User: Which sequence fits this backbone?
């Protein structure tokens, strides 16, 4: 399994709007893709802004390519997300999942 990690920043209001966008738009799209295995949206309130981190889980790089395109390192950030964020990474990172206690995979 591969974890795809992306980071963004927002105001408190923007972070809530992004959460809503993620829940109502992003997740349904991801759930329809073959090879998608789950997602986490993390939030960290920090000083006068909010740090967001999205981790999606994928069966393989091929599955990620079906979602992100040929260059899997480029972030997929929809216009609705761009509108509520104050900043975001243009690129993502990928990590091999070695142990997954949620599913018991090793």
Assistant:
């Amino acid at each position: 399994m591969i974890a795809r990690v992306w980071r963004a920043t927002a105001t408190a209001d923007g972070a809530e709007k992004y959460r809503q966008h993620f829940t109502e738009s992003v997740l349904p799209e991801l759930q329809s893709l073959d090879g998608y295995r789950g997602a986490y949206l993390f939030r960290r309130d920090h000083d006068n802004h909010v740090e967001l981190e999205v981790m999606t889980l994928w069966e393989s790089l091929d599955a990620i390519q079906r979602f992100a395109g040929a260059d899997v390192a480029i972030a997929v950030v929809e216009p609705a997300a761009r509108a509520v964020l104050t900043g975001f990474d243009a690129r993502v990172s990928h990590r091999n999942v070695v142990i997954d206690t949620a599913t018991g995979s090793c």
Observations:
- Residues 12-31 form the longest helix (20 residues).
- The beta strands are 2-10, 36-46, 49-58, 87-88, 93-96.
- The helical segments are 12-31, 61-68, 79-84.
